[in-house]
Amino acid sequence: QVQLVESGGGLVQTGGSLRLSCAASGRTFSSYVRWFRQPPGKEREFVAAISWSGGRTYYTDSVKGRFTISGDNAKNTVYLQMNSLKPEDTAVYYCNTGPGVGPGLVRIAGPYWGQGTQVTVSS
After folding, report:
1. Checking DSSP bridges between strand 117-122 and strand 10-13, what pairing results, if any?
2. What is the CB neighbour count within 10 angstroms for residue 122?
């Protein structure tokens, strides 16, 4: 069992930056660690992922060039640096992970979720 705790959300103006953190406890990360988000009134969607073993990163098109996912092995923590934020980035952001899967499933959620952290971008 893995417990995930997100932090770093908040209110920011358009063009601003935030850094989200996802700390794992119970077990160390071993596979893909993902960020999903759920905008108000919409379904949860994939944002970014990192391969914990190889460090390869994946992004949804709408955040490429603006968001960066990274990991700190010593702290068992994954970060999502979000720059040039837009109002459409407003959402609850969730950290997610699970057992090892192939690269074809990197954008598919695993069974472990954090509680979420609210990001609000004002126009």
Report:
1. parallel
2. 11
Tens of pLDDT, residue by residue over 71-81, are: 998 899 999 99
Select from 104, 79, 77, 100 the least CA-distant residue to 3. Answer: 77
Residue 37 to residues 25, 26, 52, 53, 100: CA-CA distances in angstroms?
A: 21, 24, 20, 24, 22
Residue 119 contacts residue 93 (beta carbons within 8 Å): yes
Q: Per-residue pLDDT tens for 77-112?
A: 999 999 999 999 999 999 999 888 888 889 999 999
Which of 44, 58, 45, 52 is CA-nearest to residue 98?
Answer: 52
Count CB-CB contacts under 10 A for residue 40.
Answer: 8
